[in-house]
TrEMBL record:
InterPro entries registered for this protein in UniProt: ABM_dom, Dimeric_a/b-barrel, Heme-degrading_MO
Keywords from the UniProt entry: Monooxygenase, Oxidoreductase
Species name: Alicyclobacillus hesperidum
Pfam families (UniProt xref): ABM
Stored SUPFAM superfamilies: Dimeric alpha+beta barrel
GO molecular-function terms, A-Z: monooxygenase activity
Name of the protein described by the UniProt record: Heme-degrading monooxygenase HmoA
Gene3D superfamilies associated with the record: 3.30.70.100
Parts forming coiled coils: none
ABM domain sequence ranges: 4-95
Keyword Oxidoreductase part of the UniProt annotation: yes
Amino acid sequence: MNMYIVHSTIVVPLEKVSEVIAIYRHRTGSVDKWPGFLSFQLLQNERRPEELTVQLTWQDKDSYLAWARSDDFRRVHELEKRYPDAELRSVRPTVRKYQVVAE
């Protein structure tokens, strides 16, 4: 099986970038305990600092799918919907999924 990488990219108002970074620095970490989970990174675009990408790396696609279908996944994403800042609450990510084909 090949590693599987998921990117969720959001663009937030520039003045709220630090706030969003702080949220991810204090994330729940519930994904960390999932079988097949390898790593989490929050990436900031060098040229467009308002563009942030969550990168999750998994041992394989099946491990990711198990997480994506779980109650833990739903709980984490429900938190986003209840965020007090309406502007940030309305941000929708662009999700891209990648199969690692060479290392």
